[in-house]
Design brief:
Strand order of the largest sheet: 5-4-6-3-7-8-9-10
Largest sheet: 8 strands, mixed
Radius of gyration: 21 Å
Shape: elongated
Strand content: 5-15%
Helix content: 40-55%
Oligomer: single chain
Amino acid sequence: MSFFRKLFTRASAKEQQEAPLPAAEDAVAVPEPIAEEPTPAPEAVAEPAPRSGWFSRLSEGLSKSSRSITGSITSIFTKKKLDKATLQDLEDVLLQADLGLPMAERIVREVSSGRYDKEIDPEEVKRILADEVSKVLKPVEVPFTFGSEKPFIILVVGVNGAGKTTTIGKLGAIARAEGHKVMFAACDTFRAAAIEQLNVWGGRIGAKVMSRPTGADASGLAFDAIAEARADGTDILFIDTAGRLQNKQYLMDELDKIVRVIKKQDEKAPHAVLLVLDATTGQNAMAQADIFTKVAGVTGLIMTKLDGTARGGILVAIAERFKIPVHAIGVGEKIEDLQPFDAEGFARAISGLEEA
């Protein structure tokens, strides 16, 4: 089973036959005032490389984080005996990578256990790091599945600039490549660029897009999109949302209204609430996870832009604190750079180790 097919597996239903994507038009420029991942070319929807190829891409994507951590580990532990100063240096390195204090303290304890006042190989420290990271991440490594509901309604939340709209487009492209009928609802009605971006993606992959002019009522659009998706036989409906944190109460009220309106159409919906976080924001991503889990009832997490930061450890800190299922991670601009989350692979890549 390919990585893409693993990402969209319908629970308790037969896998649908793959359907080729419609011919795509040339990319059009989207006037995006907030930095997001560039929309990749249509041909990027090709089947991804085998797992070993993905691990290479993952390692390359996490290279900034890995180099920052492992380079320091090598300099700290090469030809030095383990003492209080080296352990403090190690903890500082782990904290700078945003792994979080609980994780940093555990790794330091494990490194020091039975090795105090002895030399320790930097490679051994890396293996301990990988093992401890994997222990935290393995419980949240949860493949994304969708149930028998039709349409399966996915509410996508996150702050503006996290790559939320682009991630919706990529997920839609993956789902279309696997033969599912997809619809987008552009309910981030405050940003013209977000609306246009989804329309570009929809035209590119052959997905219907429900949108209205900037400033339109988002909840009303969500209501109509569900009715249209049901009438149209849509398999998956992605609902984009605004992500302005300047006024948290307004954000809460708006998301609450959208959810209430969705439930008028289907009391069990939204069937999934995906939080998109930008790894480059570091500790701000932790704060965002806190807000959105309280506001939106997040069921799963997708972390983007891990290739753009030396602080990829923030995913570990978020997993440890919030225990949110991690469905996928992004390490680049192409569609195949968004893949199902592999806890062991992530742990080894960020620790600078080879594939197991």
